[in-house]
Amino acid sequence: MSLAFLFRAVTREAVKVQVSVSQPVQCLHSGCQLLAADKALLMKLRKSTGYTFIKCKEALQRFENDIAQAESWLHEQAQKEGWSKASKLEGRKAKEGLIGLFVGRQAAAMVEVNCETDFVARNEKFQQLVKDVTLATLAHHQDKNENLTGYVKSVLSGDELNKLSVGEGSSLADHVALTIGRLGENMSLKRAVTVGVPAEWHIGSYVHGNVSGQTEVTMGRYGALVVFQGGKDEERDTLGRKLGQHVVGEAPLSLGNVDDLPCGESETRLLPQTFLGDPSRTVAQFLKGQQARVLDFVRFHCGETLEEQ
Is the model's pTM score more than 0.85? Predict the structure, then answer.
């Protein structure tokens, strides 16, 4: 056998090996491109829905990467799982949570939404639930009292809040169940209050332990609404906030009268209490200096029992 023949034979085998090796590499490269596309869809779906990567991957595979159908299916599944989990967790105590408060020009709403731990209370999904409940409560107040012009105050129980509608036909109870399914803790709507005032009245407010990043609806552990008249135009917002701070800090139980004499540190009537912003005066004396008067107030402390109110 000549050397030239051997050289040609070896060359042919080398070419075969090169072709057989390069083909899988090409397939692997194509597979990487496909994997990257799937990963991009996964990231997009997870960001828009908040569900786990495993759930998002299952949804995309089920609907052949149709992200709209995958998202709709995820919501349906989460709703079912949320209600199932909600029924299992129903007996667990939920005393943490947040007060949500919104004040408009002539109407305001304050709600309490509970969860099991402070950790979940700091979660964005739970805070979104508090926002939804607050705005749904305000919308209910406005629809119900659209033609009323005087002072209107309504107190809603948790059962009443659960029945309020939000979005396209779903209820607040549905939203609570969905959030339970996502975060894995028992949650409940405890109570809410709404007020509507005539044009010459004003609403002050204050939230203690304010959650950063929340602007439209303020949130915290304590909240207060104060309905008042008078005050200087340029100082009215500050006046309302100071009165709200006092109500949160001193926890009055009733309004009292301007002429009431204070009975010391155990005083529970608002007007004869020592004013938190100026201990040299009572609340009544402070209001007199501001040419204002308080007509009503509400205070919420997250987790308090009815006996403590």
Answer: no
Q: pLDDT per residue over 153-208, tens digit each?
A: 999 999 999 999 887 668 899 889 888 888 889 999 999 999 999 999 999 999 99
Give backbone dihedrals phi and psi of 298, rounded to 5 degrees, phi first: -140, 140
Quick one: pLDDT at residue 3? 47
H/E element, 195: strand 188-196
How far is Cα 245 from Cα 276, in angstroms, rounded to an integer?
8
pLDDT band at 32 (very low <50, low <70, confident <90, very high): very low
What is the separation of C-alpha 249 from the centre of its chain, rounded to a whole number of angstroms?
24
Number of helices (H) and strands (E) in the chain: give both, helices first: 9, 10
Q: Taking each helix axis as running N to C, give the angle between helix 67-89 and helix 3-49, from 0 to 180 degrees, rounded to the nearest 10.
A: 50
Q: Specify the 3-state DSSP secondary structure of 302.
A: coil
**SS3 of residue 46 by DSSP:** helix
> Does residue 296 come out as left (phi exceeding 0), alpha (psi in the -120 to 50 range) or beta?
beta
Residue 30, judged by CB atoms within 10 A of its CB (0-12, 13-18, 19+), counts as exposed
Q: What is the Cα–Cα distance from 294 to 309, expressed in whole angstroms?
A: 19
The conformation of residue 103, written as its DSSP 8-state character, comes to: E
Specify the range with the lowest mean pLDDT, choosing from 77-86, 220-229, 296-305. 77-86
Determine the Cα–Cα distance for residues 218 and 147; give it in Å rounded to an integer: 28
